[in-house]
Design brief:
single chain, 526 residues, mainly beta, Leucine-rich repeat, LRR (right-handed beta-alpha superhelix), Immunoglobulin-like, seven-stranded parallel beta sheet, five-stranded mixed beta sheet, 6 helices, 30 strands, 11% helix, 29% strand, elongated, immunoglobulin domain
Length: 526
Amino acid sequence: MSALLRQIPANIPQDIRKIRIENSHLTELPRGSFENVSALEYLWLNFNNITVMHIKSLEYLPALQELRLQGNKLSSVPWTAFQDTPILKILDLKHNRLDVLPEHALRYLPNLTYLDLSSNQLTIISRDVFYNWPVYQRSQRTEGQIEAISNAVLALHDNPWICDCRLRGFVQFIKSVGPPIILMNSYLTCSSPKFRTGKFFHEVELNSCMKPLTSALDTNLTVPAGLNITLTCFVQASPSPAVWWTYALKLLRAFNVTTEPISEETVRSELLIPAARPADAGNYTCTAANFLGNTSVAINLRVVAPWASTTPRGWAPIAPAEPGAHVEVRIAKQTVYGITLEWFAAAAAAAEPGETWYTLLVGRYDAAQKDTIYIGPGVNTYSVTDLLPATKYEVCVAVRNQAPRKGQCVVFVTGSDVSQMEQREKLIHIVVIVCAMVLAVPAGMYACTAEALPGCLARCPRACPRRRRGGQAQAAGSKESTLDSIPAGSEDGLCRPEDIHSTRRPPGREEPGKNRPPHRNSADLY
């Protein structure tokens, strides 16, 4: 007792009949642990730290009648090891960590009169475990006969039983069992599912297992953009299934999914899509699975704009503008691959800043239709990436129920090609003169605001020639793709109406003896 033993002693006398080693530090029973004590009848190894029991650890113990392994850390037992102990009568395994009891577990214990499996981690076992037990089989053969059979005590209480269809056969066995098999505690209780927690076995009626059956009230939904959408599917299954949602073959994040039981065999799963956007449209698949198989149901979601699309030139509002509803927009960050916009609501959301939605219109400057993006409350930045080279773009920001106003749009042009971008990145800044407005931007991108266009035609005939002469002197000996090309591009696009874009550039703009590059300079898009 309480000895510092870490293994079974090798010098045990051969005629020893009883060994008791408790509260020690034994961690395993290796092969042939007791090969020198074949007369052993009683073996008590309670309250050690045994985690492993070799399949031949009981070899050479044909006379063993009692084995007690209470209070160890066994998560499994090699049940075929008991072939070497044919007359074993008492097996005590309580207070271990057993979580599985295979169907053949008791097949090699024909003379057992006491089996204690209480206070383990058993959740689901088959009734065939006991139907294969020779003691039970003998009791069925001699039922109604005079032949006496020794009673067998069975302890199975204090295990976390999962009372679903998988335990149905075992529950029926417990309800019907009688002498010679006697339950030490016949009031076995359910630990789960939640609606059966604490109920006794004799109080529950378990149904047969069933493959999942999925359904949805509506498999085709059309909703306005900007609303919080909840997709719902119902699953009938036993046992309770695992449920997940997929979109475009990707598993959706669990924190947007809630699954809860609404009856014994039915669960409801809901997928939340906050602030639905047109990009969220598509097929959402709800899949349920248990050990019998899996099924799924698809829900098609269509997201439409809450108002008619607007044209890029007139920006005619479809709802009356709110007094003072204005959004200040600026370029917060620019790279050769795109821009990041930042905006501030000057007065539109002053009353309810946490509930103001915004609309972004993004596309080519001359496109008849632009992509519409809906931004929820609390967000005031958006990045525009994956842009085409040498292309003129326009991005506008507006309060949700209004059309973009003057000053709420940004126009920019991407670089002509990679080499041009890399060359411009060597420069610190490019200053683009848009009439009276000066906008400093990083290399590889030109930008201006849409509100500068109307007054530009009136003021630029005076400003642009001066700028052109200054730019010509500054660019002497430089390549056309450097700063020299910027004012020229600004003059042709921003400072002249669309109907005179074809006006030829003064001959003096090109350096003598230098051929014009074959590609189109991105500044010319202005």
